[in-house]
Amino acid sequence: MSPTTPPPAPPPPPSLRHGVDLVHVPRLRAAMEAHARFEEEVFTEGERAYCRRRPDPFPHFAARFAAKEAVLKALGRGLFGEGVDRALHEIEVVRDGSGPPSVRLTGGTEALAKRLGLGPAALSLSHDGDTAIASVVWSPSR
């Protein structure tokens, strides 16, 4: 490299990523009631316990399902194949005490987030009536 040749530009930092998903609560409820193993194949033990403590668990399940899909969208992955995508079980919505919900990743989903250089995700959940929504925003890790 000569003194007049500038050094190569560093690679761009990972970009901000966002995913959002909307779930129709009655549709999720029907799927869960029609398929006995759906709940345990999609939701972690902690998620199931949290939702089942509620008088009507289905809006809470729907918000968590929306969060799982929003995470996959933010990662640029989406859902794969027929049947239940095992990545859904690698994404867990957790609550520590009275704080806001957060996302815990395991397995291949965690590895993908690390490869993309992502830090912790910011998660927002909401449900009202027949609808649940989740939004996930990721910034690069520092």
Number of domains in the coordinates?
A: 1
**H/E element sequence:** EHHHHEEHEE
Which runs of at least 5 residues are low in confidence (pLDDT < 50)? Answer: none
Structural class: alpha+beta
CATH T-level topology: Ribosomal Protein L22, Chain A
Proportion of residues in helical segments = 25-40%
Q: What is the name of the CATH architecture?
A: Alpha-Beta Complex
Query: Got a strand count?
Result: 5
Could you give the order of strands across the largest sheet? Answer: 1-5-4
The chain-level mean pLDDT equals: 88
Rounded Rg: 18 Å
Distance between the termini: 30 Å
Total helical elements: 5
Give the overall form.
Answer: elongated
Instruction: Please identify which CATH superfamily we are dealing with.
Output: 4'-phosphopantetheinyl transferase domain
Query: Which assembly state applies to the chains in this document?
Result: single chain
CATH class equals Alpha Beta
Percent of residues in β-strands: 25-35%
Biggest sheet character: 3 strands, antiparallel
